[in-house]
Amino acid sequence: MKKHLEFIVPYSPGKSGHNPDAIKLSSNENLAGCSVHVQAALREAVACIEYYPNQTQALVAEIANHVGVDEAQIMIGNGSDELITLLAMGYLEAYHTVLSAEQTFSQYQFAAQLIGSRYRFSKMILDTYDLEAMADQITDATRLVFIANPNNPSGTMVGETAIVQFLERVPSSCIVVLDEAYYEYVKRRDYPNSVGLVARFPNLVITRTFSKAYGLAGLRLGYAISSPDIIRVLNVVKQPFHVNALAMTAGIAAIRDQAFIRESVASVSEQRHRTMQFLDKFKNQGVAYTNSVANFVLIDLPTTGQKAYAYLYERGIVVRDLSSFGRPNAIRVTIGLPKHMDQFFSVFSEWINSLD
Q1: Which band of pLDDT confidence, cut at 50, 70 and 90, is reported for residue 5?
Q2: What topology does CATH give the domain 17-32+259-354?
Q3: Closest among 28, 33, 24 to 264, alpha carbons compared
Q4: Where in the chain is the domain with CATH 3.40.640.10?
Q5: In whole angstroms, what is the distance from residue 317 CA to residue 176 CA?
Q6: Secondary structure percentages of the chain, helix, strand, coil, to 5
Q7: What confidence score (pLDDT) does residue 212 get?
Q8: Residues of each domain in the chain carrying CATH 3.90.1150.10
Q9: Whole-prediction pTM value?
Q10: Rg of the chain taking only CA atoms, in angstroms
């Protein structure tokens, strides 16, 4: 094994339940599933899986039309995780530095370690990226900067003014990646129009996914929006046929059904509000939560997240213990359908009231 790979900790996904009836609230998936039009398209596509995928251009065209850019500015990937890795492969040398925040998506650090580059992180303010502090940390060696917006696991976001001010301070030799895996869920007016910033900042990359709002996590599909020059580099380092035919077929059908997205997002917004109102009842018992704009909520607890996780797990509800994110006294809970949240409210109430 290469020396620099010895320090990589393999990714540990959110666990599933120990029985088929368990409610999985650990991986920020869409518990409403996917569009019925996607399901119909997949049933037809199965008849042709003996052939190599040939839907790339059709999907790229669909995405480009949806977001309002040229096709040359779109790159699809086997999940946005692959796109993060491709950026590392295309732009990092061992002497380069990757910069992000202290409590955020682990794949940014993994991408740096995979190449043998140095990974640095900036402290957060109120569970949110401190972009001024991050800008101060950029050096001549900084090649990639990752900003999850909204952030995982806190669900917090950075507004357009802060993003623009940050981009204005970043040298053109440094690529800024806005990871917008949860952007469909954000309804705040100050959320950045990131696509509109790409023309002004050619070193900006936006990554998005079909795994969350579109409900296609099992198919692994994501896309990047950037300048044609950066997209060309990503195309150089990708594997042939790196996205499978079923994923691309599903992606095309999913983008065409925006009514499903609107309905799903509205449901999450309503249930997230319900969840925060529910958690307010336990403020005097040491419970707090972040002001999430995504499809999950980070909950700070009066004891370890592992204890909450174990109690809920044994009763058929799976959440994410955030010890691996540096938050040992916190859990992250996916916002599900009303029936899922009702069950979570019931079991969480039992647990918190059982504490001494």
Answers
A1: confident
A2: Aspartate Aminotransferase, domain 1 (3.90.1150)
A3: 33
A4: 36-256
A5: 37
A6: 45, 15, 40
A7: 98
A8: 17-32+259-354
A9: 0.95
A10: 20
Measured on CA atoms in the order 189, 195, 198, 203, is the torsion positive or negative? positive
Q: In this structure, are residues 319 and 332 in contact, taking their beta carbons and an 8 Å threshold? A: yes
What is the mean pLDDT of the segment spanning 35-62?
96
pLDDT of the residue at 82: 97
Contact predicate 168/112, CB 8 Å: no
36-256 to CATH, choices 3.30.565.10, 3.40.50.790, 3.40.640.10, 3.40.50.920:
3.40.640.10
pLDDT tens per residue, range 289-323: 999 999 999 999 999 999 999 999 999 999 999 99
Which bin fits 117, alpha (ψ -120 to 50), beta or left (φ > 0)? beta
Q: Distances from the Cα of 184 to the Cαs of 211, 212, 258, 262, 267, in angstroms?
A: 12, 9, 11, 9, 12
Backbone angles phi, psi at 23, to 5 degrees: -95, 115
